[in-house]
Amino acid sequence: MKNILQLPAKISPCPIIEAIFECRYEPKVPPDTIFGILYKQFSDFYPKLENLPILQIPQQIRLQDSNLRYQPYYRMSSEQFILSIGPRALSLSNINEYVGWRVFYAEIKKLIEIVKELDIAKKIVRFSLRYINYFNEDILKKTNLVIRMGKQPIEAARTLVRLDIKANDFNNVIQISNDAELRSKDKQLHGSVIDIDTYLEDIPINLFSDYKAMLSNCHLSEKKVFFSLLKRDFLKSLNPVYEEEL
């Protein structure tokens, strides 16, 4: 029997419908030059270009509104990935079928190495990995999370839970819903979602000198949080495969 603390390398069917890496930063160069600099580097990897609706907002408002500060202005995409670019943030999303951590890590590494070489960021404000997992059943009944009113457990047809917790040296925003509507692969889905955003803020070290360890630790932290939520019997039903079995 596997130790419950041992983390599976993969489960089947894979519930991940989107994985997102994001890096928010303060630029060294004028913010309005960021896209032009990055486009030249990434157009071969992500050939499809899309201007996002935020560009219709006057620039003065975009710069002054704190809610828009880290929003992307452009989206570049390939068959498997979307690169979103803003003057103070970059994000890389794995769309369609999840490629697995090794492939996703390699794609993130390529992104960071190019940004490192360009030397456009002077400070990392936020560094995160976010995984959105979909289940076609009421996931709350399959988790170790119990919501009570007094001593009585609550089982509601529509439940949305948000937790902000510190775990494994990272901050984690956990959102769980058993009545979610979302789209994936051009299909409308209705079911449950476990959404985990694992992040660090105001990085005290030079990200580019130690990003590989930080990225690996961030991924490991997210996995620990995710699998700690699942009941043991439910995890067994997901056909877990461990590293030594691959």
Task: Summarize the model shown.
The chain has about 250 residues and is an alpha+beta fold. It contains five helices and eleven strands, in the order βαβαβββαββββββαα.
Give the SSE layout.
Elements: E1 16-27, H1 34-42, E2 48-51, H2 59-64, E3 74-77, E4 81-85, E5 89-94, H3 101-118, E6 121-135, E7 148-149, E8 152-153, E9 160-167, E10 170-184, E11 187-201, H4 207-229, H5 232-237
Explain this structure to me?
This protein has 246 residues and is an alpha+beta fold. It has a single domain (16-236), classed as TATA-Binding Protein. The chain has helices at 34-42, 59-64, 101-118, 207-229, 232-237; strands at 16-27, 48-51, 74-77, 81-85, 89-94, 121-135, 148-149, 152-153, 160-167, 170-184, 187-201. The strands form 2 sheets. It has a 9-stranded antiparallel β-sheet with strand order 2-3-4-5-1-6-11-10-9, covered by helices on one side. The chain has a two-stranded antiparallel sheet with strand order 7-8. Strand 3 and strand 4 form a beta hairpin. Helix 3 packs antiparallel against helix 4. The longest helix has 23 residues, at 207-229. The protein is globular. 24% of the residues are buried.
- Strand numbers in spatial order across the main sheet: 2-3-4-5-1-6-11-10-9
Question: What distance separates the N and C termini?
Answer: 17 Å
Largest sheet: 9 strands, antiparallel
Arithmetic mean of pLDDT: 90
Give the key terms.
246 residues, alpha+beta, TATA-Binding Protein, two-stranded antiparallel ribbon
